[in-house]
Every structure is written in structure tokens, then in C-alpha cells.
Amino acid sequence: MRAVQLLAPHQLEVRSVADPAAGTDEVLVRLHAAALNHRDVWIKLGQYAGLKYPVIPGSDGAGVIESTGLGVNAGMVGDEVIINPGFNWGPDEAAQAKNFSILGLPRDGTLAERVAVPTLQLAPKPAHLSWEEAAALPLAGLTAFRTLFTRAQIKPTERVLITGIGGGVALFALQFAVAHGAHVWVTSSSEEKLERAKQMGARGGYNYRTEGWAKAAAEEGLFDVIVDSAGGEGFEHLLDLAAPGGRVAFFGATRGNPPVLPMRKVFWRQLTLLGSTMGSPSNWREMIDFVGRHRIKPVVSQVFPLDRAAEAFDQMEKGAQFGKIVVALST
């Protein structure tokens, strides 16, 4: 089969490799599409924990079961599925176990024509989604769902601020929150992205490169829930924008740690800081059900053929996309 392989930091090739074999309680999935996440870029750049080479990256994928391993009903062959990329969450809903891992490192991932995965990781492909849309859903959708509903526990009509709109998780958070009946605002450095978010149901947006944007936002109203993945110097603005008793949930720190954590603001205003990442198997099932009930369609920014996977990675590194970047693998 053909696959994307990372041979070393910055060394990406599309090459022929041996087909994987389905082990006990596993199936072999012939993938129609896969999607990129920032995690794949960090692995390519050599900036991710537990690196090993060569490796086939990719956490998101959708396809058709081609064959089954021992202990698996052969009647599953031909089923259309999407893959939960979070392995070995463990028994505690509150947090993942020590051996939790994500598909695409250390286990070979979805940027290939075939992948072997345990049946426990599979869900039926939502019927209203195309292959590209289905491949775009798993990691980002699961992360957004847990952040909003398990950690922040948003309620209908609450005021929600989502930072960095345009990325996969932020867009899913917007779609999920709007579908749930929350009132959502967003931030971006791009006026075009702010306008597109409004077309998707955001009530307003703020360009965080505009001087005094946070003060202007606060004058319009504080937020019950704030969702962030950047951190860095701008994190203190988010605390100022949180309503008394508000919740600030974050699933990343792309701009690093905040230089200062103003603890007096946190305790005096009864704020709650909530870390989140990926999601449990029950979160996965709930997310798939939510997407089906609300007919939510992931936003696909671009689709690249496998031979142009390097271009897909380049686009991801630039960060200019609005939605998910997808790699088409077969028809």
C-alpha cells in the first residue's frame, strides 16, 4: 500500500509499505480519507513526546472494513466506519490512564491506504457525512465535545467565547455550542474568519490584534464559558472576560504558558480553570450521537490527494485554514 512516512524530523515521503495485518479483535480498514491535526505537524517537526521513526502519522480516518482478525465477526466486512483515535483511555471518566495513546504515534496511523485498529475504536460513519467530512470529525470533534460538555458543562443560552476560530477544534466548539443553544462569540486575527464564523451562527467576533479588543468585548458583556487553546500572554485577557463564577476551559497551549497567573482574579471572582484533552469512549459515543441528531457537518478547508501530502502539511504549518485539511486516499 501507499502511505505517508516520516523517516526523521522534517523528512516526509509518500512511499510503498507493507499492508498492516489485523490482529486479534482488530479489523483492517481500507481508508477513503484521513485528516491532519496540529499533532501531525509537531511530530513532523520533531517536537512531540515519544517520537519514533519511521512512523505513519495521522489520527483521523474514515473507510470501509476490508478484513477481520481473530475474534471478530466476518460479517463486519464492508461496514463504513470512522475511527476513534484515542486508545486505552482507562476506567476513570475524569482523566485518561497513563498508557493512553493517540493513533499515529507510536502506532502507525491513518495517512495510508489501510490501517489496522481494534473494533472498540470504531463507530458507524454518520450517514449524512461525505468521506472527507467523516474523516475530519474524530480527534477535533471529540476534543471539542469533551471540553464543552464534560469539562465546561455549557448550558443553553449561556454566553460562550471561543478563541482562535478557524482551527478544527474551535470550529467544532462553535458548531456544537450553537447547536446546544448557547450564544457564541469568537476571536481571530482574520476579519474573513470572523465573518465566516458569524455565517455559522456566531453572534459576534473580535480581532485580537486590535488594541483594546478585550476591554471592548467586556463592555458588551462577560462570558460564562471561555474555550481556549493558545495560552500565552493573552490568557490574562480571558480571565478578565470571564463572568463571576465563569469557567475557562483549555485544551492546548500553542503560545506557551501564561507569563503570569493572576490568582486574585481567579479566587475573588470564583472562576474555574479546566484542562481537557481528547475524550473517553463514552464521550466518543455521545459526540457521534450529537453530530447525527443535529446533522452537524465538519468544515473541510482543503482536500489533497495522497501524492500531495507534503503540501497538506505545509498548509497546516501556515495555519491559514478555516476548517480541517483532508487527504483523499481511495474511492
Can you offer a commentary on this structure?
The protein has 331 residues and is an alpha/beta fold. The protein folds into 2 domains: 2-137 and 298-328, Alpha-Beta Complex (Quinone Oxidoreductase, Chain A, domain 1); 142-275, Medium-chain alcohol dehydrogenases, catalytic domain (Quinone Oxidoreductase, Chain A, domain 1). Helix content is 28%, strand content 28%. The strands form 4 sheets. Strands 3, 4, 5, 8, 9, 16 and 17 form a 7-stranded mixed sheet that branches. The radius of gyration is 20 Å and the shape is globular. 45% of the residues are buried. The model has no long low-confidence stretch (mean pLDDT 96).
CATH superfamily of the largest domain: Medium-chain alcohol dehydrogenases, catalytic domain
* Radius of gyration over all CA atoms, rounded: 20 Å
CATH class of the largest domain: Alpha Beta
Shape: globular
Mind summarizing the main beta sheet? Answer: 7 strands, mixed
The number of E-state strands comes to 17
Mean pLDDT: 96
Strand content: 25-35%
CATH overall fold name of the largest domain = Quinone Oxidoreductase, Chain A, domain 1
Number of domains: 2
Secondary-structure content class? alpha/beta
Detail the poorly predicted runs.
none
Helix content: 25-40%
The H/E string reads EEEHEEEEEEHHEHEHEHEHEHEHEHE
User: What is the first-to-last residue Cα distance?
Assistant: 14 Å
CATH architecture of the largest domain: Alpha-Beta Complex
Helix count from the secondary structure assignment: 10
